[in-house]
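Quick one: structure for this chain?
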Amino acid sequence: MLEAEYSPRPARVHTTQASARVAPAGESRRLRFGVTADKAGDELLDLSTKGLKIRTRAGAPALDEVLEIALRHPHLRGPIRVEGRVKWIQDEDDGAKTVGVEFEKLRDTTRVAIMQLVVLELGSTVYGEQGPLGYVAEVRLAEGEERRFVLYDRERKEIGQVAKRPTGFSVEGIEQDPRELVTLQEAVAAVFSERKVRLVPPVR
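Got it. Here's what it folds into:
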């Protein structure tokens, strides 16, 4: 489960010889990807190397506010810490607000780490001849079990699964040719009814 915490960046008080950090007024918030703990909870809606999108009922950060963000995942040794600036705020019909945050001053190593985190949670993007089609993510099963991949459309709704067999890949969950396919790309292309697809990042 991907989690993220964010809080306003402490303000700096500049003097002639030194600077001091002032603690933020609000408490740090914890968000889960795709999970709202309760009616007052926050939800992490989207994450990329450019930024993230938050849905909140507990009071949105201010427009143009800079946030300190800590991204966590069970497969990471520690949190990825970045700064992000609130770029837009949208009111929802149910009283919640959706907030767009853009990352700032990302190092190349941090960008790669975020990409790895996105792949862990969302999988790789599936591209066809006309552009992005959806996503494919490997399901982490018990050691020794066959590899299995879940396919999602662009709205991240599951549309099928692909299992790695000893002799190839087989498509499950939709009506397809029962024969096994040689590569994962061929199986993914069959699910999306495409002649050829490209997975970014590639699945190894």
